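Look over this entry.
=====
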Amino acid sequence: MAFYKISIKTSLTMLNLKGLNPLISTRSSNTRAITFLLTEVLATITVASSLFTKTLEADSVVDNISGIVFSIQTICKEVTMLLCRDEFVALLNYVEEFWPVNEFGIESGTNIRNIQKSTSKALKIFRCLLLMCTVIIISEPFFAEGRQFPVSWIDISCIQTSLICYGVIYGFLCGCTIGLVIFLSLIDGLFFNLLSYGYCELEQVKYALFNLSIDGDVRGDQVETLREIAVLVRHHVTSLEYVQRVKKLMSKVMLYQFSSSLFTLCTGLYVLTYQGFPPSVEAAVKFVPFVACAAFQIFAYCVAGQKISEQTESIANAAYECRWWFKHQPRLQRSICLIIQRSHRRIVLSAGGLWNLDMDTFIRILKASFSLLTFMQTMYIPE
């Protein structure tokens, strides 16, 4: 599937700028990766220390914590890229064994390409939203009085007296923020492409079942059909192993992803409403991007998890609808039964085993967020 290979190759090439390409493990790439990671860790610690050394308003505290959460999320995903190089290499080796797009004719090829186009559009929307929210965040100083930075923890005296000093530091902060968002979106895009690869390959398995060559004029099992079903069963197992590996790789990362997104969602909504509704322009500019990013990240992974689970289970329907009933062919029927039985054990992506990635979870998270928001308003908003 050329589309996903090109997309994955592009992501890996960009990630190699920070030494995070799992296919390239050299002293130079490892040095780059560790240097960037240490810099990000030190910056995160600096932001965190401001919470204990300065007296800040509630919205500034939430602003700082949201920045810390976002930074840790990026660091966790980068550490995963470093520590799980072998897993990524194994996944890319699986990809080499997958069938070409047109393996089962023009109709199946067209369907697969439509799925690829939909995936590409979804990724573009996801990245555009992240970039838009980033632009709004770094534009916060334009809505505030005096010379300020997008983050409230920086307090440098020279910015009030020197425009050059302010411009240099502001440009540096903007560059760092945009860089973090770009690499975060690249890693997310890599995960989405790997999941979509598995989805499309399972779609190919369904087309293979529909196209089994069964000749009604030949009595009993056909040797050629048994060979096809043997290849098909092996390929089905390979595809499921691939999805299981992606699930295992994502599980721990998704645990922090969901925890941090839920925290950002709750605190952002709280700050937006604790002084009344609608919020001020300054509060909206500062926190709406955080809330939007958190909600959309959860939504995107829940949709992906829902689609993968449904696809693994839908193989059973495709197997049942193939022409196994056309005549008495016991060995073929036993093979079909194996596929159906295996497909009934649907693969469910999860966040550390605590949350299943599906739309039910997304709805529950939204309900829990608003319930927690109501509790926080009751407890902490003054009469």
Notes: The beta strands are 350-351, 355-356. Residues 6 and 168 are 37 Å apart (CA to CA). The longest helix spans residues 223-273. The first strand starts at residue 350 and ends at 351.
